[in-house]
Amino acid sequence: MSLKQLEQTQPLELHWRAFELRPSGAPPLPAEYRARIEANQPLFAARVKRDYGVAINQGPFDINTRALHQLKKFADAQSKGNEFQQAALDAYWLRAQDVSAASTQQALLAQAGLTTPVADILADENYLHAVLLDEQLAQANEINGVPALVFAEKYLVVGAQPLNVLQQVAAQVRAEQT
Asked: Could you tell me the pTM of the whole model?
């Protein structure tokens, strides 16, 4: 949400990268950790409502998002990546949709103006390779959670930060670029 607000006041060039919180084959979350996440969800929703006026209606927890990331890489190649990204975020966070479902994914592509069948996109290994490269980049830079924002390939901002933090980092980048 803070990133969206920052975008409204300053020009930004966003490059979304793939990052799977729970990749296929990952060990299950410990029950106590999962319980802590679930217990914090109402607090998170209340904070987002208070700070941004947005009602969170989160999709299912612990889903496999690899295919969604592959579809995003396809959308990027069609110059529709930002549209697809926003549609996917809204579907998951605001409409509680299961973005791992092929029917939901096809609808997200349509919202971005794309009609290629999901199965055809997923059959192209180039998009899988692009996702895996993003994940390797995150691992090489010791990024292990989301959100993780990198400004000017130099400054890492981890976690959902308030607008003033993002503004400070953006100001630092601008100062260095002039």
From this structure: 0.85
